[in-house]
Specification:
Largest sheet: 6 strands, mixed
Radius of gyration: 25 Å
CATH topology of the largest domain: Rossmann fold
Distance between the termini: 31 Å
Structural class: alpha+beta
Number of helices: 9
Order of helices and strands: EEEHEEEHEHHHEHEHEEHHEEEEEEEEEE
Oligomer: single chain
Bound molecules: adenosine-5'-triphosphate, magnesium ion
CATH architecture of the largest domain: 3-Layer(aba) Sandwich
Helix content: 10-25%
Number of domains: 2
Shape: elongated
CATH superfamily of the largest domain: P-loop containing nucleotide triphosphate hydrolases
């Protein structure tokens, strides 16, 4: 049973189509991440779900209720949709105390005072803000304000919460803490959470499933963190989720070369897994998956070597391109030092292949 369903939803602003024919089912009790570059339509989807924007086509269901249908002319008001939303651009009302912010959705629903008191207390406890009831937002840190925003979302609904970039403005340590808190919240209350961000790392860390959107608003992959990291659906996903190198490769008489012009750079004598024959192809490879190996016929020259605290980062010139290579501290325990200007052999692990003519974004 899907908790939320977008069914062929299209959103336009004037004649600018932002999301086209978007379909997605969010399962009960899951944390689903929606990740995509700025402007791909994430907030537009949240506003459509919340009832603040009317899609030009399609249906939206919340807990099996049809809350919006262009064709059937159904459009339930935001209050009746019973969603907790933590908005991207404004977190909490500056003129209301912490208590009043969190009580607001309940007051609006004309909840009895004693019940409001109880629910506000519970929500503040969930986000560890007990004792701050009388504080005004200006007296709180950014992280505390975000926690109040989440508490307010909880008094709107502890069933479904949508968080649109809730932690972008927090420092790294607070950000980590927030992710843990969101996870605990989900475990305690079994809330269904949609977590929207352009921070792919946070999404992969937090969410049960992640949806990757392309700049044009299309979904290009839905999967667990393992699916997305191990099996990126296309070149866009590969590039989006981590530091990447792309190297043109060619097949000739059963041998595989990097860079057409450099025939000595043969890196495989049998067909690598996933290689696309008969088409110009590029290899996508992560810096950690390029290994220095003196035996390899693929040679490059180190142009830059930098120690980054936990790993060594190198730029290696090969043919007309520069590759980024990383070696962990553990790999470096062999005592071999690699210096700028040195020629090194390169071996490739876990590489992926993409159609070179496909471009970076699948249309
Ligand atoms: N009210 C509006 N009127 C016209 N165009 C809009 C409006 N709101 C958003 N857009 C346009 O729609 C597109 C998608 O915007 P949206 O806010 O949904 O993106 P987003 O994925 O949330 O981006 P970000 O990661 O920056 O928050 C953008 O090109 C934006 O300029
Ligand atoms: Mg947005």
């Amino acid at each position: 049973m899907a908790k939320i369903k977008f069914d062929h939803v299209t959103v336009k602003y004037g004649n600018h189509t932002v999301v086209k024919d978007f379909s997605l089912e969010v399962k009960e009790g899951e944390i689903l991440g929606i990740v995509g570059p700025s402007g791909c339509g994430k907030t537009s989807l949240v506003r459509s779900l919340g009832g603040f924007l009317n899609p030009d086509e399609g249906d939206i269901y919340i807990s099996d209720n049809l809350v919006y249908s262009k064709k059937k002319r159904i459009n339930r008001s935001p209050e009746t949709r019973r969603l907790g939303i933590v908005f991207q651009d404004y977190a909490i009302w500056p003129h209301l105390s912490v208590y009043d912010n969190v009580a607001y959705p309940l007051k609006k629903r004309k909840t009895p005072k004693a019940e409001i008191d109880k629910l506000v207390r519970q929500a503040l406890e969930q986000v560890r803000m007990t004792g701050y009831e009388k504080h005004m937002p200006a007296q709180l840190s950014g992280g505390q304000q975000q926690r109040v925003a989440i508490a307010r979302a909880l008094t709107s609904s502890n069933d479904i919460i949508i968080m649109d970039e809730p932690i972008t403005n927090l420092d790294a340590k607070l950000r980590e803490g927030m992710l843990d808190e969101i996870r605990v919240l989900q475990q305690n209350l079994h809330t269904t959470i949609i977590y929207i961000t352009h921070d792919q790392e946070a999404a992969l860390q937090l969410c049960d499933r992640v949806v990757i959107m392309e700049p044009n608003g299309n979904i290009c992959q839905i999967g667990t963190d393992e699916d997305i990291i191990e099996r990126p659906a296309n070149r866009f996903v590969f590039k989006f989720i981590g530091v990447s190198n792309f190297i043109p490769v060619v097949e000739e008489k059963g041998k595989y070369y990097v860079y057409q012009a450099k025939k000595e750079l043969c890196y495989a004598e049998k067909k690598p897994k996933g290689f696309i024959s008969g088409k110009p192809s590029v290899m996508g490879i992560r810096p950690m998956d390029i290994v220095f190996d003196d035996e390899s016929p693929v040679k490059g020259v180190i142009t830059q070597a930098v120690f980054l605290g936990t790993l060594f980062n190198y730029f290696v010139k090969i043919g007309g391109a520069e590759l980024r290579v990383q070696r962990s501290m553990l790999d470096s325990l062999d005592g071999r030092e690699y210096k700028e200007g040195e020629t090194v052999g390169l071996r490739f692990l876990n590489e992926k292949y993409y159609d070179a003519e496909e471009g970076e974004v699948r249309k």
